[in-house]
Amino acid sequence: MFQRRLSDWSDLDTSSLVELEGSELLGDSPGSVPNGGVDTTSFYGEEEEDDDPIYIPRMDICSQVPRGNVFKDGRTPIDFVLVWEEKLQSSKKHRNKGAARGPERDSRAKGRQENYRKRFHRNLLKAGLLCEKEQTLSERRCLHYLKLSAPWDLLVYYAEEMCMRAPLQAQPNPDTNTSHRFLQRLRLPNPMYQHVPNKPLDYYTCAFRRSKLQKFLGSECQATYFSNIQRSRILYELLCHTVYGKRKHAEVGIERLLNEGIYTAAFPLHQGPHEMPEYEVSPETLNPRQILYRYWARWSQWYKYQPLDHIRDYFGEKVAIYFAWLGFYTAWLLPAAIVGTVVFISGLVTMGSNTAAQQICQSGTRYLMCPLCDTCNNWFISDICPMAKVGYLFDHPGTVFFSVFMSFWAVTFLEYWKRKNATLAHHWDCMDFQEEEEQPRPEFAAKAPQMEQNPITGVKEPHFPKRDRLSRILTGSMVIIIMLCVVMIFLVSVIMYRGIVTMMMYHTGNNLLMTQAGNIANISSSMVNLVLILLMGQVYTSLAEKLTRWEMHRTQSLHEDAFTFKVFIFQFVNFYSSPFYVAFFKGRFIGYPGRYGKLLGMRNEDCGPGGCLIELAQQLFIIMVGKQIISNIQEFLIPKLKSWRQKRQLAKVRGTQLSEEPKRWEEDYELIECEGLFEEYLEMVLQFGFITIFVAAFPLAPLFALLNNWVEIRLDAQKFVCEYRRPVAERAQGIGVWFLILEALAQLSVIVNAFLIAFTSDFLPRLLYQYEYDSNLDGYLNFTLSYSPHPYVSANHTMCRYKAFRDEDGNYTLFYWKLLAVRLGFIIAFEHVVFFSLRCIDWMVPDIPGSVEIKVKRERYLAKQALADNQEVLLTVSPGSSSAGSCISARGMSP
């Protein structure tokens, strides 16, 4: 309905418009711009005579709009800004290039763009928007700024069309911080709490109806009834549905105009600067952006609660829910980090009492080991005494307990996030939010070969045959498989590199290098692997974006879901393939003396002296922590470099005007475009995988994740408040498809940790030996070492030992098969116990808190009473809140 009515308005002849009271005729006096009007001379380059007059209604606005965010009349608020650039004089090089390709072609393209803009502007005026134009000139470029504002009647009309929610009854804003309430009950000080001024009120709301306007709070003050983000949301929806060309070619909407370069930017304005005043002012007088900067985006606030209501009121629900989830996730990392650190310290304290390591250190020259490579010499197992002690840090009974703990932690965290999400969704009026019928993507509309009628709206829209799209999706899947094979090729290359470095270290003859050859090879190969991972991630993300565009998904939601799936699948394999290899494949196919397994002519690599778990811990530390450090550096430097470059380019355009204070729209245009939340979610989800899937090998992973997230929150806050243009506020019920990915990772972590303990750790072999032979592990080292089979002999013609449960003929012993049965039994028992307990947690913890269910019922009752036609209801206001008749700034209607 919204689409049909707006399209009808866009195609209306101007003579069908009705003059409203207080309106002025556009262009009555050449060169003058009436209040809320547009100068046609500045619009199109020269004055035009219109066949039909265009009437622009004036607005009576209260003076509560931030300074610099109004039209020249000082009253009309700016809800949206469109920017386009025009080259006035080309350089000699550019003129020669243009002459080579044909000046006529450039002229036609420029004329077509001007015509599109002209039509778009006219249809915006016909739809009822107020417009005002500014421009910044230089010798070569001209920047045009079109300021847009929606009058009251337009806002009210589309508020009902877009099913916004309006405030019925005010109530105290609930405290959503569980830790704060807990500390209050214990009467303990809370250093994380801070008072943030101008906290928005909470309201019971219902669907807005124009006919019931007087029953909603704040309806008597038109200036503040619609919040800033609600006004920009209505403007954005209108811009997305306005026609600028031929409807049959789907030439509709600002997104396609931006995509084709007809406009360079479209954004709502920030509500003032973020810099704090040089003089002391009352916190209540700060603008919303300054409040966010002072109480949220500064590094000194790293341990304070996030002002989520303020974030939601400024950036919208989608951004606020991301920061709510990130803060909730970071808070839950605290107990995991504490337990992991305790487990690591307990291993450090008991490292000297490790019986297996003591037997290695005290063996002397008793156990002569077989060479580790075909050209290497024999060695004594006592040479690896230091590494055997260090390996105990990552392979002791405490790590088994921690893996079980983290399995419960992951699922419990997700269950309680459901409750937190439900609370925030109701508090922010998006619990019942559903995406409206989306318009086709601009690129889809431009390239779709057919037009078909939409069964919902009845309007002809671009159409792409399903069979053709399916073939493209299958082709794209083949490309993904090929890229995954490339990842495997790089993995094999890293394995070969590790083997070559190890042999080089052995052939140096240096005892230190020989004993540390495995560590040197593993650490250096992990660094090389990290570089390859980051490079492959950049290449594939660009490739996935092109593939997703080529698949021609109709809507932006479908496009984003397909892109998310492609990138996550690749990044999962890209980041986790090497740890999976070390955990489950390295040392499993080495064979035995005389029958070694080989890959490309080289012996398959065995686990290092300290075991595979210590190598896995080294890899996880380098890949996880290295990725976090590089990402934080990029997030800190790249936005600042982009912003510096943008400001430098625009400074050249302003030229002699630098002495004047730049306007708000000029300052915002100097900022960089908001890049969205995809990369932020992807980084956190990959981190979640590291701290849950391989936590048995790296107990300190939650601690490093916690430290990183404290930095991440402030970096992201600074980007949104200081570096980015203000994004259009979007609604969202939760974190979307990312929650499904987190659930899948949590389930996978249980399985992986079970196999990691069973097959990679020495926990079960030691446990079985204690049960069958000796509870004190006496003779355990000799029991785990087999003799080289006949007729194989080592280089010095003496019998050597190697680590395996085999007899002298190379066959597996009975203990090996018993151990295999114990390992499989442990996996089954571990998974069943954990999964059963998790189902119990899921059953016991309701997804929606009882207090929220009561509020939902109360809200529905008030909505039914307020919208009833046969009775008058007096809506009371909770103590401490504003009265119904006052001019309040409500959270009100959520677009």
TrEMBL record:
<feature type="transmembrane region" description="Helical">
    <location>
        <begin position="319"/>
        <end position="345"/>
    </location>
</feature>
<dbReference type="GO" id="GO:0046983">
    <property type="term" value="F:protein dimerization activity"/>
</dbReference>
<feature type="region of interest" description="Disordered">
    <location>
        <begin position="92"/>
        <end position="115"/>
    </location>
</feature>
<keyword id="KW-1133">Transmembrane helix</keyword>
<keyword id="KW-0472">Membrane</keyword>
<feature type="transmembrane region" description="Helical">
    <location>
        <begin position="520"/>
        <end position="543"/>
    </location>
</feature>
<feature type="transmembrane region" description="Helical">
    <location>
        <begin position="815"/>
        <end position="838"/>
    </location>
</feature>
<dbReference type="GO" id="GO:0005254">
    <property type="term" value="F:chloride channel activity"/>
</dbReference>
<dbReference type="InterPro" id="IPR007632">
    <property type="entry name" value="Anoctamin"/>
</dbReference>
<feature type="domain" description="Anoctamin transmembrane">
    <location>
        <begin position="311"/>
        <end position="859"/>
    </location>
</feature>
<dbReference type="InterPro" id="IPR032394">
    <property type="entry name" value="Anoct_dimer"/>
</dbReference>
<keyword id="KW-1003">Cell membrane</keyword>
<feature type="transmembrane region" description="Helical">
    <location>
        <begin position="399"/>
        <end position="417"/>
    </location>
</feature>
<feature type="compositionally biased region" description="Basic and acidic residues">
    <location>
        <begin position="102"/>
        <end position="115"/>
    </location>
</feature>
<dbReference type="GO" id="GO:1902476">
    <property type="term" value="P:chloride transmembrane transport"/>
</dbReference>
<dbReference type="GO" id="GO:0005886">
    <property type="term" value="C:plasma membrane"/>
</dbReference>
<keyword id="KW-0325">Glycoprotein</keyword>
<feature type="transmembrane region" description="Helical">
    <location>
        <begin position="735"/>
        <end position="759"/>
    </location>
</feature>
<dbReference type="Pfam" id="PF04547">
    <property type="entry name" value="Anoctamin"/>
</dbReference>
<feature type="transmembrane region" description="Helical">
    <location>
        <begin position="563"/>
        <end position="584"/>
    </location>
</feature>
<feature type="domain" description="Anoctamin dimerisation">
    <location>
        <begin position="70"/>
        <end position="308"/>
    </location>
</feature>
<protein>
    <recommendedName>
        <fullName>Anoctamin</fullName>
    </recommendedName>
</protein>
<comment type="similarity">
    <text>Belongs to the anoctamin family.</text>
</comment>
<keyword id="KW-0812">Transmembrane</keyword>
<feature type="transmembrane region" description="Helical">
    <location>
        <begin position="473"/>
        <end position="500"/>
    </location>
</feature>
<dbReference type="Pfam" id="PF16178">
    <property type="entry name" value="Anoct_dimer"/>
</dbReference>
<feature type="transmembrane region" description="Helical">
    <location>
        <begin position="685"/>
        <end position="707"/>
    </location>
</feature>
<dbReference type="InterPro" id="IPR049452">
    <property type="entry name" value="Anoctamin_TM"/>
</dbReference>
